[in-house]
Write a structure and sequence with these properties.
Blueprint lengths: L7 E7 L1 E2 L2 E7 L8 E2 L2 E3 L6 H13 L1 E12 L10 E13 L7 E7 L10 H10 L3
Family: Belongs to the Nudix hydrolase family.
Protein name: ADP-ribose pyrophosphatase
InterPro entries: Nudix_hydrolase (IPR020476), NUDIX_hydrolase-like_dom_sf (IPR015797), NUDIX_hydrolase_CS (IPR020084), NUDIX_hydrolase_dom (IPR000086)
């Protein structure tokens, strides 16, 4: 009997930097060419926290320390590739140099209100700052 199909798990990061938020310009579909939060799929054997830190390093060149959970985003329609659930963290930079690589055409610290964000990332950014302690 095959295993039931379940949502895929991703981890994303909101990183305030230089008066903006670190965003990547997506190299691949969906939302190719649009700005989005750094993040990606969790590998088997990896925690969501490890995935968040790894994806930040791979896509932006930055090392981060996760500060707190922003939220879990599980709307089945949030990703055109299928039902993906994202665990999102607020982080702070602890090292590295900002540069786009891996799945990112480009990486920059931008005002998230000044660009169109893919997925539900505009809502996630708002949540990250509205929920600040």
């Amino acid at each position: 009997m095959p295993a039931p199909e379940t949502p895929k798990l991703t981890a994303d990061v909101v990183l305030p930097l230089e008066g903006g938020v670190v965003l990547i310009r997506r190299k691949n579909e969906p939302f190719k060419g649009q700005w989005a939060l750094p993040g990606g799929f969790v590998d088997v054997g990896e925690t969501v926290e490890e995935a968040a830190v790894r994806e930040m390093r791979e896509e932006t060149g930055l090392d981060v320390q996760l500060e707190r959970l922003v939220g879990v985003y599980s709307d089945p329609d949030r990703d055109p590739r299928g039902h993906n659930v994202s665990v999102v963290f607020l982080a702070k930079k602890v090292g590295g140099s900002l540069k786009g690589s891996d799945d990112a055409e480009e990486a920059a610290a931008l005002d998230p209100e000044s660009v169109e964000l893919g997925f539900d990332h505009a809502k996630i950014v708002r949540d990250a700052f509205e929920k600040r302690p």
